[in-house]
Structures are given as C-alpha cells and as structure tokens.
Amino acid sequence: MGKKGLDTKEHIKKIAYQLFVDKGFKEVTMKDICDNAGLSRGGLYRYYESTEQIFSEIISSFLTVQNTELQEQIDNNISAIDILNQLLEKYRLEMLDARNSLSLAICEYFSKKRIEENDNLLSQQYQMSFSSWDRLIQYGILRGDFRQVDSRTIFDLILFSYQGVRMYSLLMNISEDIPQRIIKQIQSLLIPVQKLEEYK
Amino acid sequence: MGKKGLDTKEHIKKIAYQLFVDKGFKEVTMKDICDNAGLSRGGLYRYYESTEQIFSEIISSFLTVQNTELQEQIDNNISAIDILNQLLEKYRLEMLDARNSLSLAICEYFSKKRIEENDNLLSQQYQMSFSSWDRLIQYGILRGDFRQVDSRTIFDLILFSYQGVRMYSLLMNISEDIPQRIIKQIQSLLIPVQKLEEYK
User: Fold this and answer.
1) pLDDT digits (tens, 9 = 90+) for B87-135
2) Is the CB of residue B62 less than 8 Å from the CB of residue B41?
3) What is the ipTM of this complex?
4) B181 contacts in chain A (CB < 8 Å)
5) Entry's SUPFAM superfamilies (chains A, B) (predicted)?
6) Which of A98, A115, A153 is closest, CB to CB, to B173?
7) Domains of chain A (ranges plus CATH)?
8) What is the 3-state secondary structure (H, E, C) of A17-38?
9) Which among A102, A180, B63, B138 is placed 20 to 30 Å from A6, CA to CA?
C-alpha cells in the first residue's frame, strides 16, 4: 500500500475513533464513517469491510505505538524513572478525560461475542502490553532505578486500576485526586524512597 | 410493609439480578421479570415501577449488606487481618466468576444517563463503600494489625482494580493468578511483613 493509502487509513481510523467514543460500538455504522470521513462507500470499503475490523485495528495501533515509543526511550538510555513518570502522566490524563474514553465501545464490542472468540485479540493485547511494561521494569531494576519487584503484579495493578477508573469515569465524575493517589502508590511501589525524594 | 411484602421484594430482586447478569440492563423488561418471578403484572408493579428502580435497589443492597457485616465483625473484636482476608477472598471469587458479573448491566445502566444524574447514586456508593473500608483500615491500624497507610489510596486501588478485572472478565478469560497477584499486593501494602508470615 502506497503512502496515500496509508494516509487514508489513518484518516478513517481517526474519524471512526471519535465516533466510537461518542456513540459506543453498537451504534456506529459504516455509513456514519463514510459520511464523517468524507469518503464514498466504495472509498471506505476499499480499506475496511466492517466496523469490527476498524475497531480492532484502532485497539491494536494504541499498543504498537506505546511499544515502539518505549523501546526507543530505552535504546536512548533514558532514566527508567523518567520513562515511568511520563507513561503514568499519560495514563493520569486519560483517566480524567472521560469524554475520550473508549470503555463503553470496548464493553459493547467484546460482549457481543463469546469469550473464546475475543480471547485471541484481548489476551494477545494483555500479553503485548505486559511485555512492554516488563521490559521497562526490568530495565529500571537493572539500572538501579527501581526496586526488585514482581513486574506482573505491578502490571496487573496498573492495567486493571486504570481500566476500572476509565470505566467509572463514564459513570460518575472522577475527581483529580483519584488517579493521583493511584499513580503515587504505583510510583512508590516501584521507586525506592530516596530516589522518590530526588524527583520531588 | 409486612414480612410477606419484604419476602416478595427479595424474591423479585433475586430473579431480576440473574436476568441483569445474563442480558445486561437494556434488554431486561418488566415482563421478563414478571414471567421469571411467577408474578402477575399487578403483583410486580405493586412493589416496583421500573427496571431502573429494581436495578438501583439491587446495587444499594450489596453495599448495605457489606457495611452491616463489617460493623458486626468489628464490634465482635475480630482481628482486622481476618476480616480483611475474608473480604479479599470474597472479592477474589467474584473476580473469577465472570458469569455472575453485573458489569455489562452497570455499564449500560449508567451510560444511558448523563453523568450528573448518576452522580447521586454512584458517588454516594463510592463514599459509602469508602467509609466502610476506612472503618476497617483505621480499626486495623489501631489494633496494630495494619501499617500506617492512607486508607483512601488503598481503597481506590482495591475498588478500581476489582472493577477493572470484573469488566475484563466479561471480555477475556481471567486466569486465577491475576486476582491472586492483586490481592497479595494489597495484603502486603496493609499487613506488616512479620504479621504476614504468621498468617501463612
């Protein structure tokens, strides 16, 4: 696929992303996407056959981007604490940004199918996301930036509390201090006290 | 309301609970509840006017039961560690029991409305649930069972990681070790090392 094709796909995903955020998964149609992206039916179907295909590609792109960025920072020998704080700051902002949450769409998309069918996509994502966090945590331990922790435990805590807050943020007002408390706790699990002091 | 009326309400809530678990919130009708509870239309409407009313009562009962049980155990001077472990064990089993999760129904129920309307019910529940956990944590600190922790931080971590796992459990297979890791981490945040050893 040439550059023009790739650009069009990016454009479609960006438009579709906002529609999924606004309306959930069930209520978005291929026609909505055509209309909002300024494409003809043929123009859209050249790239995607269904909203499901677009949705699953959007979800995958998130992780790919995060993995690539993380690896670059590690390759550039940036402090693990800086990388961590930057990631957690991103998560914090996302937790507060209820209007941009895909949680309802994710709920609807995956609950339409049997768990076994999802398992490929979601379990894969869980694994990919873990291996990216594991890389960061091992790197931090090796550099002496982090405590000797079990990276899976920390990862589960980060992932699920993040998802829990994002789900709740659709349902009630999440005050600033909730993500802040969670993030502070995760930092203190990873970063030894004296290093935490240095970063204040 | 006499005992018979209260029993009928309990029966209705039990039947409705299973329907909400199986079908989410949107697809359950008052007729479904009549049919499954073996009640006439009039019999049901004497107690509840809508599925919304039944749903919000189900959610409230959970918390009331948890609060009452907790207070009883504290009044009986039971070790805070025992109370904690019992609660966490209950949470662990619920996290693994995807088929009994109300998460999809909760998502659908609350996302139907504007956040401001929900705020009464959900924020109230968040506060109630916090005050019950806070009571336990302060009691544990006072008895010397727990470390000097910030109870709100621990509460947020427990609540949101629990909710995150419950949501995910609708979508993918949650292996036994995920809730186990989360619970072990929470225990070790609360219980000092030497006390943890005693309980192994």
Assistant:
1) 999 999 988 887 777 877 887 787 766 555 655 677 888 888 899 999 9
2) no
3) 0.83
4) 150, 152-153, 156
5) Homeodomain-like, Tetracyclin repressor-like, C-terminal domain
6) A115
7) 1-49 (1.10.10.60), 63-198 (1.10.357.10)
8) HHHHHHHCCCCCCHHHHHHHHC
9) A102
